[in-house]
Amino acid sequence: MPDLDKIIHERARLLILTHLASNEDTEVSFNDIQNKLDFSSGNLSVQLRKLADANYLKIHKTYKDNKPYTTVMITASGAAALKAYLEEMEQIIKSLKK
């Protein structure tokens, strides 16, 4: 049985990483993630912090038009962890089809 990454296995964090990995832009704004995934700002902040603590993404805070502006980007280790997680899930699905 594969040892699934518990950080990624949580639904919200899986959605965030998948969104970042599939986005054309390297950096995605907090508001874009929030709107696309329909998260509250509090929940999104918590999930981003957990992913950042695991070094799966980087959070960049700045100002735009004198307002706080946050962008997020997936790291190389985050992309590798997501790929490994998806491969493990595929193995589980294939084993159930036998």
Protein described:
- This protein is an alpha+beta fold.
- The protein has one domain (6-92): Winged helix-like DNA-binding domain superfamily/Winged helix DNA-binding domain (Arc Repressor Mutant, subunit A, Orthogonal Bundle).
- The chain is built from five helices and three strands; from the N terminus they run H-H-E-H-H-E-E-H.
- A three-stranded antiparallel β-sheet has the order 1-3-2.
- A hairpin with a 2-residue loop joins strand 2 (57-64) and strand 3.
- It is elongated.
- The protein starts with 5 loop residues before the first helix and ends with a helix.
- The relative contact order is 0.20.
- The model has no long low-confidence stretch (mean pLDDT 94).
Chart the SSEs and their pairings:
Elements: H1 6-9, H2 11-22, E1 28-29, H3 30-37, H4 41-53, E2 57-64, E3 67-74, H5 76-97
Antiparallel strand pairs: 1-3, 2-3
Q: Give a count of the beta strands, DSSP E runs of length 2 or more.
A: 3
Shape: elongated
Strand content: 15-25%
The sequence of SSEs as H and E is HHEHHEEH
- Reading off the top of the CATH hierarchy, the class is best stated as Mainly Alpha
Indicate how many domains the architecture comprises: 1
Biggest sheet: strand arrangement: 1-3-2
